[in-house]
Specification:
Largest sheet: 5 strands, mixed
Distance between the termini: 50 Å
Radius of gyration: 19 Å
Number of helices: 7
Protein name: Aromatic compound dioxygenase
Oligomer: single chain
Number of domains: 1
InterPro entries: Intradiol_dOase_C, Intradiol_dOase_core
Keywords: Dioxygenase, Oxidoreductase
Organism: Lentithecium fluviatile CBS 122367
Structural class: alpha+beta
GO molecular function: ferric iron binding; oxidoreductase activity, acting on single donors with incorporation of molecular oxygen, incorporation of two atoms of oxygen
Shape: globular
Order of helices and strands: HHHHHEEEEEEEEEHHEEEE
Number of strands: 13
CATH class: Mainly Beta
CATH topology: Protocatechuate 3,4-Dioxygenase, subunit A
Length: about 325
């Protein structure tokens, strides 16, 4: 039985992100999350009855894990409980474990009306599933399943825009003091670990990427934007539509620590900020029903063979936001 009750979330690094702290906005986000959590709780029966959406999700995830294993040769919470909960299964799962067992847990991140976008969103990135661009680090397969918080239906045709820094804390697509070599103008045209992908009939998007490193003042994280009703241009980028959400996703602290002990993550001498000390993590996980941390399994026997992470994301499709940016990727490359 699917646990539907859980459906209610190599260079120097730059000196960190700086955000305005707005108490009124934080209260608004908390109110939204409480409402969304109640709405998702009422979705359980509808999702169970809707043509096997949850069963297909379990089967698809198990198949995806097996695919990437072969290719390599091989609950509702608040911030404290999210921090103290392992999202890595403690069971002795193998590639032969039935899908109904392996993916019985299905946590959901209830997305705030507008969370932290950070300074390094780059509009104009390519629609693609493989974001690695030969970047070194721990390989990851990410799956997000998007649900409409009002209707409980999977959101087909949503575009998931995702980006994160590389293994040593550097973002592609920009040149800025502290973000790697600020004299290297070729980074404007780099696209590593950035991309956009369209959700299928079950609201699912899948990416291949690399586990993020860290930089000053922030825990390990991924940035996400949800685009609705966008149009695909001939150059395989998006235009128009609306932004229904801006947010961030995280990993358990123990898996972060394990990754950071490996090369090239361990060449970064900047002090790590743990999840427990990260303001954005606290904001995103403060309300019952929001668990913005990936569930995950190892694809092989150790980190070098990669991780598979998944999360179900509830979106308010009626919301519209206008995220800010300082860089954009154009037909002629990246510009500030």
């Amino acid at each position: 039985k699917v646990a539907l009750a859980g459906l209610v979330s190599v260079a120097l690094a730059h000196p960190g992100e700086h955000h305005q702290h707005n108490q009124a906005a934080d209260l608004s986000k908390r109110s939204f999350k409480q409402h969304a959590s109640r709405g998702l709780a009422a979705c359980a029966e509808k999702l169970q009855a809707r043509g096997g959406v949850m069963e297909r999700a379990a089967e698809r995830r198990a198949a995806l894990v097996n695919k990437h294993r072969k290719a390599r040769g091989l609950i509702t919470r608040d911030t404290d409980s999210v921090l103290n909960t392992s999202h890595h299964s403690s069971e002795q799962y193998t590639a032969d474990t039935p899908a109904s067992v392996l993916f019985a847990s299905n946590n959901t991140c209830v997305l705030s009306p507008e969370a932290e976008i950070g300074p390094y969103w780059v509009p104009g990135e390519f629609i693609r599933s493989d974001l690695t661009d030969d970047q070194p680090g721990v390989p990851i397969i990410l799956e997000g399943q998007f649900l409409d918080v009002e209707t409980c239906e999977p959101i087909q045709g949503l575009y998931w825009d995702i980006w994160n820094c590389n293994s040593t804390g550097v973002y592609s697509g920009l040149v800025a003091t502290g973000n790697g070599d600020s004299t290297d103008l070729s980074n404007y045209n780099a696209t590593f670990l950035r991309g956009v992908q369209k959700s299928d009939e079950d609201g699912v998007v899948t990416f291949q990427s690399v586990f993020p490193g860290h930089y000053d003042g922030r825990t390990t994280h991924h940035h996400i934007v949800a685009h609705l009703n966008a149009t695909v241009l001939p150059n395989n980028t998006l235009t128009g539509g609306t932004v229904g959400h801006v947010g961030q996703l995280f990993w358990d602290q123990d898996i972060i620590d394990a990754v950071e002990a490996t090369y090239p993550y361990n060449t970064n001498n900047i002090t790590q900020t743990p999840n427990a000390d990260d303001r954005v993590f606290a904001t995103e996980s403060a309300t019952d029903g929001s668990d913005p941390v990936f569930e995950y399994v190892y694809l092989g026997s150790d980190l070098s063979e990669g991780l598979f992470g998944w999360v179900t994301i509830a979106v308010n499709t009626s919301a519209t936001y206008d995220p800010t940016y300082s860089f954009v990727y154009t037909a002629n490359g990246g510009v500030a």
